[in-house]
Amino acid sequence: MIVRKALIRHGRRLAHSPRQWTRSLATETDLHDLQDTTEAIDSSLSNATLQTKSIESQAEKSGVQYVPQIDARTQMSQQLLGDGTKYVYDRHRRQQKLQNPLGTTVDKGYQPHRLLTDPPRPSDITLELLLASQAHLGHKTSHWNPANSRYIFGIRQGIHIISLDVTAAHLRRACRVVSSVAERGGLILFVGTRPGQDRCVVTAATMAGGCHLFDRWTPGSITNGDQILRSCRKQVVDEFDREVPEQGAALKDASALKPDLVVCMNPIENWVMLHECGMHGVPTIGIIDTDANPTWVTYPIPANDDSLRCVQVIAGALGRAGQEGQANRREAALAGEVTYRPNRPKRIADRMNASPRAVEAATGLANTGDSGMGPAADGVANRSRNSEVDKNLGYHRAELAS
Amino acid sequence: MGRYDFRPLRVHQTATQLLQANKGSSPPPWYGVVSNVPPAQALVRTQPLPHAQRSRRKQTKKASKLFQPQQITYDEDRLRKEFFGDHPWELARPRMVIEDDGRDSYKTDWRRIEQPEKGLSGERSSVVQRQMHIQQTDPDMPKAAAYDRARKEFYGLRLLEDTERRVAREEAMWTGAQFGPSMMEIGMKLEDQEYDRWKAWAEEESKKLEQQNAAMYTDTGSGGFEEHAPPEEELGEDDPSEVTPYAV
């Protein structure tokens, strides 16, 4: 009766699902059916793996795999973001910006480095500037040179006081000379051999496109230049300051160049150089203190040569004047106008047969045997320039001496 | 002229002569410049600017001092002499001599003694300048009164400075600053050292003096004085182990 009821109960089920019926009778297994089912499972599994692989390959093809780089910097920035340091810093900076305009504005006043980085122009020369730069302080009255009594304003506290209007006038005149010579392509040499004058001399020479000297002047550099400056490199440049290489071979026989203008910051120590310049007709500019001889230079500037600030102001003004001259020259060159008369390098005179006239011809203004002056055959306006490696005559002389 | 070398001043003339001599040569770059901007006159002596009037008695025929530079004098010099004569320690205060742009005089207004552009101690003659201003604006006031007024204003500001310094010191000590020994303490220490040194020297000197005096009165140069004799208590003792240098 139970069996009958079970069959009646499960009969319908068994009738609809014969597979389940076979599963429920687990004790009797049909090997054939088992094999079929395992095969089916295997195939379904393999199908599944194939499907997932295809999905992966599609994913790989479609997008770029991004793997974040982990380095110290990124880690640090993540850390700072995480612990709030960046937020605090940004807030601090915002506060600073808000509070900066509050309170007093402190005037910067005198900044010594600006005399070297941004020197005053000839138009900035005022009596107040010269006064603040101690240009009016001369030497003790007993140490004076009476030849420059015209430049002295009076006596105060035992020293001579230089007249600043006289200083300003002479300085402006010197600036005019420097700018005009630079405009005409002249070679200007700035000399300052006292300690501390090197920077202002180099700055002025760079601005004026000239040469500088802050070591000892080797005596004979002008009178015996062919010997002393023998190893210095020379170059010929055109109106655009480009080197002209064709003239290189001729430069080997060329005599040493003389500067066209010499600016000296301490003439008392460099009297030998000024004497040589006088001998060879080179115009000079110099800072003349109350104890110096004003006839040693062509254009004296009565001022205090012991004050570094005063020397920097004067060197700065002259450098700026040279800069103006160079700018005018380049402007004229771009417009097609050459502001100077081109020349050829002069040959060294034969020293054995040298007569004073021949030496002068070689080292002075005269021309040695060339047909005539004028533009070179190729029509390029050339001028020779004695340029050493560092544009420092003293540097090369130190090399020669060692 | 034998002692002078005018070649630097005559570069242009020399160049002109050379150019004339060598017709084929060309002038140097500076030739036109120096002719346009000639050098200034040299070795010219002119009468200097008169800062002080030359007295009639000294206007003799011999004018040897006529071309000499003169002393620069200001009216403030008298006032300075008076002020620094009365207050010599003001000269000991540090002084700033570097100027910014030389325009300090444009920024100062002497209607009051305090100048924000320069400190009170920076320019010590602020009393002098203030006094000059008072005298110029109020000519009826006697000079002594003007001096007193400027002086009193100056004292007020100096006292203010001293108070500020004292308060700053107290504040610093309150927040943990430690100042070294004061000037008084350093002075006392030096004095003590000197006294100790003197004391040692004096003892040596007195010993030497006593020995000299002793040498004057005795042959062997030993003993004789009460100070060198053994004390009274030891006279009764008769200890042979003790070596007494003096015969009792």
TrEMBL record, chain A:
One of its GO terms (molecular function) is structural constituent of ribosome. Gene3D superfamilies: Glucose-6-phosphate isomerase like protein, domain 1 (3.40.50.10490). Residues 362-402 are annotated as: Disordered. Residues 385-402 have a biased composition (Basic and acidic residues). GO terms for cellular component: mitochondrial small ribosomal subunit. SUPFAM superfamilies: Ribosomal protein S2 (SSF52313). Keywords: Ribonucleoprotein, Ribosomal protein. The keyword Amino-acid biosynthesis does not apply. Pfam families: Ribosomal_S2. Belongs to the universal ribosomal protein uS2 family. This is Ribosomal protein S2. It comes from Ramalina farinacea.
UniProtKB/TrEMBL annotation, chain B:
GO terms for cellular component: mitochondrial small ribosomal subunit. Coiled coil: none annotated. Its main location: mitochondrion. Keywords: Mitochondrion, Ribonucleoprotein, Ribosomal protein. It is found in: Mitochondrion. Residues 53-64 have a biased composition (Basic residues). Belongs to the mitochondrion-specific ribosomal protein mS23 family. This is Small ribosomal subunit protein mS23. It comes from Ramalina farinacea. The gene is RSM25.
